[in-house]
Design brief:
The complex is a heterodimer of chains A (522) and B (206). Chain A is mainly α and 522 residues long. Chain A has one domain: Cytochrome c oxidase-like, subunit I domain (Cytochrome C Oxidase, Chain A), CATH 1.20.210. Chain A is 73% helix and 0% strand. Chain A is built from 17 helices and no strands. In chain A, helix 3 runs parallel beside helix 5 and helix 14 packs antiparallel against helix 15. Chain B has a domain of 141 residues: Cytochrome Bc1 Complex, Chain D, domain 2, CATH 1.10.760. Chain B contains 5 helices and 2 strands, in the order H-H-H-H-E-E-H. Chain B has a two-stranded antiparallel sheet. Chain B is elongated, with a radius of gyration of 22 Å. The interface between A and B is large, with 96 and 80 residues.
Amino acid sequence: MVTMGLLLALSFVVSLLALAFLIWAISNKQVAPDQHDARVIFEPGDEGHVDSGETATSRPYHFDTVRSGIDAVSTRPVAVLLIAATVWLVIGSVFGLVASLKLHWPDWLSDHAALTFGRVRTLHLNLVIYGWLSQVGIAAMIWVLPRIFHTPLRAPRLPLIGAALWNAAVLLGAIAIANGWTDGEEWLEIPWQLDLVLALAGVFFMVPLIKTTLARQVHHIYVTGWYFLAGILWFPCLFVIANLPYVHSGVEEATVNWWFAHNVLGLWLTPIGVGTAYYFIPKIIGKPVFSYAVSLIGFWGLALFYSQVGIHHLIGGPVPTWVATLSVVHSVMMFIPVIAVAINQHITVGQNLWALKESLPLRFIAFGALMYTMASFQGSIEALRSVNSVTHFTHYTVGHAHLGAYAFVTITMFGAVYHMLPRMTGRVFRWPALINAHFWLVVIGFAIYFFGLSIGGWLQGLAMLDGTRPFSESVILTKPYLEARSVGGALMTLGHLVFAFNVASILLPQRVPESVRTVPAE
Amino acid sequence: MNNYLPLSIISLGILAFATLMLVIAPGIEMARPEPPAGLRPYTAEEQRGRDVYVSMGCLYCHSQQPRAPEQAPDGERGWGRPSVSADYFYDSPHQLGTMRTGPDLLNVGARLPSESWHLTHLYQPRAIFDWSIMPAYPFLFEVKAKAEEGDVVVALPPGFAPAEGVVVASQEALDLTAYLLSLDRTYPAPEDGIRDDGYRPRGDAE
């Protein structure tokens, strides 16, 4: 297969050349993101001041009139999306917990088809991806992009229509899946008829964001903008192509499936999480990111390499050898953009550890950013053929997926929500201890979840690779680890209830003594 | 990066390139005008059963893609020869799967050819394997006082049978079982079969 070897080499060489060109362009100032551009996130007077003020005891945050004019327009669509996202998070977590319990209590709730493991697990995935993560991501985009572009959101009513359509489609999709109407592929279960509604809703989110971009009052697009603006183009393309009915079949359908599913992580959820961290970390600390030029390598490296990793889900399967190898190679290349992002985000936090004491949201975001590095490093290693033989087909992969989608993206978004809400409402969180409780519940719960599945999954994989051990051994030995996962998952779900309470407590009108109210303008 | 348009065009260009590499090129390579000799299309009953398999989400615990002996002992476990892309000629949606919480099923019809076994196992997996964590599917069955003509009665060991009456398979359970029994790719792999040979020892490749 000389031609296929050539294709493989071609893809790799093209990506490497593109990266080399980018590095050349940066070092020769062809594209010149200088450190000055990184300061576009600050209004005059912002820089050098910590942007906290979520609780009554912390210093009131800086609040200038320009910014408040921008935020005031974004507040309504952001609030609607956040409330809906939070509801789906809670429902989705409950389904996740039920699915987890059913793996070690197989006869629990087995009388109805809607509650069988295969459907409950699928409801969990679709609700947290489409209901929670996508909506909280769009909320963050609607909040952050006008701020970095120094102009109010354009067409601010459209996202409200989008949210109504999106949530109707997610709800109907969930009902469809519970009743056994599914497109039958992982990450693509929602029936394509409803996917049309989701795609239409997406247009209502994209148009205001693109209009705001074109109307921006600053010359430079801040790094968060690259991730967000690319994400809202990538995701619709992926979503529409992968959901086309009657086009895909057989193993070709499987390659489309994993091209889509891994790119949802890489080109949608990752841009949401990384873009959010890139804005809030320096904004909260009050200092620009460590090296703005390196952030370019992080972004384009992500685009070049992450977009081609999906077929590592089919290693050892009925696909051409070269395409599996291609995805392994690009998975390993992901070290480059991940290290670039790590340099920027972790060094910025590391030089300003004091800020973690000042800002509760920063704790979530800094933790989430750290988990991005961990999840990506783990993913690169997991794609190696030798490691993949053990971990593929086991619960280890489920642990890895949650390290990315949960510990990284979800926890980052918790921090963003806690930072946005006081600025949307002009109020403070009355019970900061509950934010802290939320943090420790999800972090400890996740640690139990992750180590349980990683150890159990690895042992499961080793047992399956040993032909002298019966298959039953690989099932029996995982049971205690599956129980541990349920314990971790229960703590995480409890944390989400606390989160929902915190969101409700600041959004609902509160009767607070005049003295503890923040004064918005100084 | 100060311009929206170049950013958009290059981002979409990179995605298009990835699509070419991951989807279009392998799709062209794997496209076949004909199914392999030995593979027959699903019957109407088997296809209905496949729809039940899809709607119950069996995919989330069972793969349908035996690995090569160089990689894993799937053959020794009776899961069948390494599958090639042509083996899935009639499959849509694909059900290759990513988990083996339960065993691979691509050849389960050849390995476990008894309808009665599958019906018992679907009604209550723990009636056969006490260690199993597979869901039971009692809602695919009906408990009747007495079997009527044409009813397929499920054989159950004491302790799993209802106190009174008999357990009868629904049409869905029969369809699903027909699909499981149809899973049999034991015919020889086509000469030009495509699969990931990345685990084959060096020098053995072409």
